[in-house]
């Protein structure tokens, strides 16, 4: 059974930082893209960032470019999202995703982790 388990969410003041982690189990995603999506209350789920299987290519939503950094450790089947200069509009549930292509989501989702940025 494939599982993606996120961690690292929480409450932070505007301008602060958080680092999200997503550990995959049940299969290896070393040949697949992995990424992050988010969903704010009353809004649709949106793409945040993705990284290619090799880590050589990264993709970001315009709203997070320059503030967020995605990376992966294939040996640990884990993907990370370093979030700096957080803004209240970054408040959302963040979901890990695997198996997609570039900015398109794949079939595998985590349960989500809440990120709340206070002003």
Key structural traits:
seven-stranded mixed β-sheet, mainly beta, 0% helix, 119 residues, four-stranded antiparallel β-sheet
How would you describe what is shown here?
With 119 residues, this protein is mainly beta. Helices cover 0% and strands 52% of the residues. The model has no long low-confidence stretch (mean pLDDT 95).
Structural class: mainly beta
Number of strands: 11
How big a fraction of the residues is strand? over 45%
Number of distinct helices: 0
Order of helices and strands, N to C?
Answer: EEEEEEEEEEE
- Subunit arrangement of the protein: single chain
Distance between the termini: 40 Å
Give the overall shape, derived from the CA principal axes: globular
Unreliable stretches, pLDDT < 50, 5 or more residues?
none
What would a concise description of this structure say?
By secondary structure, the chain is mainly β. It is about 0% helix and about 50% strand. It is built from no helices and eleven strands.
């Amino acid at each position: 059974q494939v599982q993606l388990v996120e961690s690292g969410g929480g409450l932070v003041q505007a301008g602060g930082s958080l680092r999200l982690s997503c550990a995959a189990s049940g299969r290896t995603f070393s040949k697949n893209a992995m990424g992050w999506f988010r969903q704010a209350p009353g809004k649709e789920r949106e793409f945040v960032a993705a990284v290619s299987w090799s880590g050589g290519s990264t993709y970001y939503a315009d709203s997070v470019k320059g503030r967020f950094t995605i990376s992966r450790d294939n040996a640990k089947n884990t993907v990370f999202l370093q979030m700096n200069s957080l803004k209240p509009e970054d408040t959302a549930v963040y979901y890990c995703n695997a198996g997609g292509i570039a900015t398109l989501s794949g079939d595998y989702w985590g349960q989500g982790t809440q990120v709340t940025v206070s002003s």
